[in-house]
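Minutes, project check-in
Item: structure for the 205-residue chain
Input as provided by the requester:
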Amino acid sequence: MTPAVALAETPLFERPLEQLLDEAVLFHGHLCPGQVLGVRMVMAGCREVGIPFPRRAGKRLVVFVEIDRCATDAIQALTGVSLGKRTLKHLDYGKMAATFVDVAGGTAVRVSARDDARALAALYAAGESDPRRAQTVAYRVMPERDLVRIEPVVVEPGWLERRRVRVFCHQCGEGINYQREVGVSGRLLCRPCSGERYYTQRRET
């Protein structure tokens, strides 16, 4: 068996960290603390739900990410989940956390960064004065229990499967897919019309 074949047949969470980092950085564009953290979150999450080869898992693996930062790119790069395949779910909670779900097996774990990991970084990167470089070095070698918290969870009904239906907003008239409408005073509204709007229409002057 050639080294390349052997590597391909090695579970993701048993592969060398540096090789996984190389793959993540190729996708993301640079090395940073978030990339290291994201790689280690993937290693922990896939191990805990029992998915050794996430890129082969198809839609069996779904990942909910709670922040749009560098770690999310590492998660996407190593697992192959994506928004377009509806296997990557972004929830804008502003938390460095991700939930890994084995849809077939019904198990799920939430992996979140420990808030005190930054403070511990100096202990694992002696002589490194720049905080970000210290974190990048430290997160490679820090024991998992000091870097992340792993919690078994149950994903609430409706988050994994949504009926493929289309309704129309009673206010703006635009179509709404996958049961994302909101009921307000007996009317079906899209989320922008219900108040969850990230944009306003520009008035021509």
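Outcome recorded: Residues 26 and 205 are 45 Å apart (CA to CA).
No further action items on this chain.
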